[in-house]
Amino acid sequence: MHDEVAAPRPVSLALLAVQTLNGLQLGILLFLIAAGLTLTFGVMNFVNLAHGVQYMVGAYLAAMFASLTGGFWSALALTLPTALAFGLALEFLVFRWLYDRDHLSQILATFGVILFMNQGVKTIWGAAPLSVPMPDALSGSVALMPGLLFPVYRLALIAVGLATGLALYLVINHTRVGMLIRAGATNAAMVSALGVDIRRLFMLVFGFGAMLAGFAGAMVAPILSVEPGMGDNLLILAFVVIVIGGIGSIRGAFLAALMVGLIDTLGRAFGAQMLRVALAPAAANQTGRALAPMLIYILMAAVLFHRPSGLFPVTR
Amino acid sequence: MTMRSQTPAILLFAGLALFPFVARFGAQAYLLTLGARTLILALAALSLDFLVGQGALISFGHAAYLGIGAYAVVLASMAGINDLLAQALIAVAAAALFAALTGYVSLRATGVYYIMSTLAFGQMLYFLFVSLSALGGDDGYTLSSRSRLFGEPRLTSDFAFYYLCLAALALAYVMLTRICGSRFGRVLNAIRQNPLRARALGFRPFPSRLAACLIAGAIAAVAGALLANQSEFVAPAFMSWQRSGELLVMTILGGVGSLWGAVLGAIIYLALEEALSLLTDQTHVLIGPLLIVVAIFGRRGLAGALAPKASGSAA
C-alpha cells in the first residue's frame, strides 16, 4: 500500500496535492473492500475474517487471466464473474452453515479459510510476487498543475471507486433489493417473517461483497505486487473503516474509508514535519515515525469512545 | 455455573508432567523446546479462555500481552534486572496498565465492536514496537542470555525450563478455577449470561469485566516473559494480529469455558502444525479446512466432545 508516487522533498503545494491524491486512492480502495464487509457484518451479523482473502483472490485471478489473454481489460472482464463464483462457492461450502452460530465459530472457520487460501495461492501460483501489466490507455502521467505529475492509472482508480460508490448508493437507496438489504441490516428476523427468503438475500449480499473485494484486488493489481497474504493487512484496515463508519452503513463506510486513507497517508508523509513545530528535529522524526501508523487506530479508539456504534450507526 | 469434574484436567497435567521422560526416547532437546513453547502458548490461551468463557469478552488482541511480557524482559534486562520473577512482576504491572487503559475504551463497546476495538489496540501496540528502533524495530531484539531465577542461571537447562513453564501453567489453572468459583467469578458469569438481569440485581458489568481483562492480561504477560526466555529473542511479530487469531483458534478448538480445554486446544493445534510440517510444507492447506470442519460440526470444541456433561454452559 505504501508505494506512493515519489515526490520532491520540501513541503510544497504540489507535494501536498500528490499525497492527498494518494490518500484518496487508498481510501477508495478501502471503500471497495469495506462495502461488502460492512454489509455481511450488518445484515448477517457475521464476523468474516476471510474478506481480505477475496481481495487477494481477485488480484491473483487478474494476474492469471492477464497472462492467459495478454490484456488487462479481458482479464478484468474474466475476473469479475470468477470472483463472484468464488464468493458464492465459499458461501455454499462454509458460510451458510454458520449464520445462526456464535461469533466464535465464525472466527474459527473464517480463520481457517485465511490459512487455507494464503497457502493455497502459494501452491497454485508460487510464492514469488506476480505482476499485472497496466493497460496502455491508462499508463503514463498527466500534469495536474505546474510541477505536479500524477499517474493516469491512479486517477482512473479514484474515478472508478467514486463511480462504484455512487452506483452502490443508488442500488441500496433506490431499488427493491437495496430496500431489503437496509431492512435486513435493521432487523433480519422481521424481514424473514414478512416472507422474504432471507437466505437468498444473505447469499446475494455475500457474493456481491466478494465480487467487490475481488474487483478492488484486480484494479490495484497493476500498481502492487500480487503476493500471498496481501489481503491480511488490508482486512484490518477495512475493519477499522467499518467500525468508524458504523457496521452496516454504506455511507459510513464511504466517509470512514476516505478518512482512514487520507489520515494514514498524510500522517506518514507529513507527521514528522508537523511535529517539528513543537519538538526538536530528531525527536520529531522518531515520534512521527512511531505515531504515524498508529493514527488510524487512535482515531478508531476516539470514535468508539464517543460513539460506541460508529459515526453512522444503523438503528435497530 | 455447575461445579465441574477436574478429572480431565488432572489427566492432562499428569501427561504434561510425564512428557519429558517420554521425550527421552526421542529427540529430547527438540521435543523439550517444542514442549516448553506449547506450554507457554497454552498459558496465553488459558487466560484468553477465562476472558471469553467467563466474561464473553472476545478479544482479538490478546497477543499484545504476549508482546508486553516479552518486551518487559528486554527492558528489564537493559536496566540490569535479570531475575525472572522481578521481570514477570514488571510484565504484570505493564499488562495491568495496558488492560486498564484499553479496557476503559473497549468495554464501552459490545459485540463485534468490542472484538474490533481489541484488534485495533493490539495493532497500535504492534506498530509502536515496529517503530522503536532502540529495541530493534521490525527485526526484533536478541537477548544475551536467559533470565536468572533466585540469582542463579537456572533456566539454561531445557529440562528445568520445561518444568518452570508447567508450574506456571498449573498455577494459573488453579488460580483461574478458584476465581471462577468465587463470588467475583459468579458475578462475572451472571453478567455474561444476562447483563440486564445482573444489572437489575445491582451488579454493574464494567468493573467486573475490567477486572477480568486485568487478570487475563496479567497471565498472558507472564506467558510473554516466558516466551522471550524460551526463544531468547523478542520481535513485534509476537503481537501480530495473526498470533491473536491463533490464540483464539486454540481456545475455540479446545472448547470455550472449561479452562483445561484451552490447554488441550493449544497442545493439539501446535502438535498438529508440527507433525504436519514434518510430512509436508503445505501445513495450512490441511489445518485450514480442519478448523472449518470443527467450526461447523464441533459445537463445543474438544472439551465438549471429551467430557460432554462436565463442560459448563456454552458461551
Q: Mind sketching the topology for me?
A:
The complex is a heterodimer of chains A (316) and B (315).
Chain A: H1 13-44, H2 51-69, H3 72-93, H4 103-125, E1 141-145, E2 148-151, H5 152-174, H6 176-193, H7 198-220, H8 230-245, H9 250-275, H10 281-291, H11 295-306
Antiparallel strand pairs in A: 1-2
Helix pairs in contact in A: 1-5, 1-6, 1-7, 1-8, 1-9, 2-3, 2-4, 2-7, 2-8, 3-7, 5-6, 8-9, 8-11, 9-10
Chain B: H1 7-23, H2 28-55, H3 63-78, H4 84-106, H5 111-131, E1 141-142, H6 158-181, H7 183-193, H8 195-200, H9 205-231, E2 233-234, H10 241-254, H11 260-279, H12 283-297, H13 301-306
Antiparallel strand pairs in B: 1-2
Helix pairs in contact in B: 1-6, 2-6, 2-9, 2-10, 2-11, 3-4, 3-9, 4-9, 6-7, 6-9, 7-9, 10-11, 11-12
Give me the secondary-structure category of chain A: mainly alpha
Low-confidence stretches of chain A: none
Rg of chain B, nearest Å: 19 Å
Summarize the largest interface: chains and residue counts.
Answer: A-B, 48 and 47 residues
Task: Spell out the helices and strands of chain B N to C.
Answer: HHHHHEHHHHEHHHH
Q: What is the 3D form of chain B?
A: globular
Task: Give the termini distance of chain A in whole angstroms.
Answer: 36 Å
Please bin the fraction of helical residues of chain B.
Answer: over 70%
Low-pLDDT segments of chain B:
310-315
How would you describe this protein?
The complex is a heterodimer of chains A (316) and B (315). With 316 residues, chain A is mostly helical. Helices cover 71% and strands 3% of the residues of chain A. Chain A has helices at residues 13-44, 51-69, 72-93, 103-125, 152-174, 176-193, 198-220, 230-245, 250-275, 281-291, 295-306; strands at 141-145, 148-151. Chain A has a two-stranded antiparallel sheet. In chain A, helix 1 (13-44) packs antiparallel against helix 7 (198-220) and helix 3 packs antiparallel against helix 7. The longest helix of chain A is centred in the first third of the chain and has 32 residues, at 13-44. Chain B has 315 residues and is mostly helical. Chain B has 13 helices and two strands, in the order αααααβααααβαααα. Chain B has helices at residues 7-23, 28-55, 63-78, 84-106, 111-131, 158-181, 183-193, 195-200, 205-231, 241-254, 260-279, 283-297, 301-306; strands at 141-142, 233-234. In chain B, strands 1-2 form a two-stranded antiparallel sheet. Chain B is globular. Mean pLDDT of chain B is 88; it is low at 310-315. Chains A and B meet through helix 4, helix 8, helix 10 and helix 11 of A and helix 5, helix 10 and helix 12 of B.
